[in-house]
Specification:
- There is one protein chain.
- The protein is α/β, with parallel strands linked by helices.
- The protein has a single domain, classed as Alpha/Beta hydrolase fold, catalytic domain (Rossmann fold, 3-Layer(aba) Sandwich).
- Helix content is about 35%, strand content about 15%.
- The protein has 9 helices and 9 strands.
- It has a 9-stranded mixed beta sheet with strand order 1-2-4-3-5-6-7-8-9, sandwiched between helices.
């Protein structure tokens, strides 16, 4: 009996250690913000230019960021100055204790579609504290630093929660895009109830790393929300690139990884474009028609007058 108890304790400790390593791996792989160009392993699509800089958070720590712009557009300087250069921007956030390195593929794909995208490393997160409200403030600060006129706030996992909070608070926001959103402490539900702009989302299968799909409660709380589920997609499929630790810790629903990630990137880019073009209302139906397995999930849409959701049992 004593041996079995010790074995269970050791298993729990090993699991906690893996979770922390999975999160911290993103920070350990943070790119050097001083370098304006990617390394050879970070090859970009043709027509995409990237520069890097740093902005001070209101807490005093340094927010490393990267700016992705179409190469045909005037390239921003190595560190974008605090001037109003205007324009439309997508501010794209990484997941809990990850890094902007994990959103590089999506940012580059959006830029190849003609959008201007900025990613950042949240410098206020700790293993014991997500600090989602502060992360949202840092996203808004970056948009202000870039002189954005209109903004789509987007993010993966807990970064999607920060994006929602940022979109709720910033008058320049035209919409919010979440990628396998994870809710915590009711922050997302409260923000969604007060959101006066479209909320679009992509969601994978319920797994341990998206809190068994608890983000759907956020979409049920919004009056203008649309979600597409990617059948067979796991949490790590929403990073581009991901890493071995994420795949080790997060349950894999046995989808075809490359195909799932390609669909996620294409649908996310289309969603950001739809928000900026004022066509969020047609995004789900338009992309469903050519999704090849991507389905809109009606369970995630708000039901009138508090009616029960399908499969909820009314509880």
């Amino acid at each position: 009996m004593h041996f079995r108890t010790m074995h269970r304790s050791a298993t729990r400790l090993a699991t906690v250690a893996l979770l922390l390593l999975a999160g911290c791996s993103g920070l350990l792989l943070r790119p050097d913000a001083a370098g304006p160009t990617p390394t050879p392993s970070e090859s970009l699509p043709a027509g995409v230019a990237v520069t890097a800089g740093q902005l001070a958070s209101s807490t005093g720590c340094g927010l490393d960021y990267r700016v992705f712009v179409p190469a045909a557009a005037p390239a921003p300087p190595r560190a974008v100055p605090k001037t109003n250069d205007g324009g439309d921007w997508v501010i794209l956030a990484h997941g809990f204790l990850r890094s902007q390195q994990r959103m590089r593929g999506l940012a580059a794909a959006m830029t190849a579609d003609g959008l201007r995208v900025a990613t950042l490393d949240f410098c206020n997160q700790r293993p014991w504290a997500g600090r989602h409200v502060q992360n949202a403030q840092d996203m808004v600060a970056l948009a202000r630093h870039l002189g954005a006129r209109r903004v789509v706030y987007a993010g993966f996992s807990a970064g999607g929660l920060a994006a929602l909070l940022a979109g709720r608070s910033d008058m320049r926001a035209v919409g919010v895009l979440t990628l396998d959103l994870v809710e915590t402490q009711g922050l997302g539900v409260r923000a969604a109830r007060g959101l006066d702009k479209p909320l679009l989302g992509l969601a994978g299968e319920p797994t341990n790393c998206n809190a068994l799909d608890n983000g759907r409660t956020v979409f049920q709380a919004s009056v203008d929300a649309r979600v597409q589920r990617i059948p067979g997609a796991g949490h790590c499929d929403f990073e581009a690139p991901t890493d071995a630790l994420c795949e080790l810790v997060c349950a894999d629903p046995d989808g075809t990884e490359g195909a799932q990630r390609a669909q996620i990137i294409a649908r996310a880019a289309a969603a950001a474009r739809a928000l900026l073009d004022g066509e969020a209302g047609t995004w789900a139906s338009a992309t469903d028609a050519a999704a090849g397995g991507v389905t809109a999930d009606p369970r995630m849409r708000r039901q009138p007058h508090g009616s029960a959701l399908p499969g909820s049992g009314g509880g």
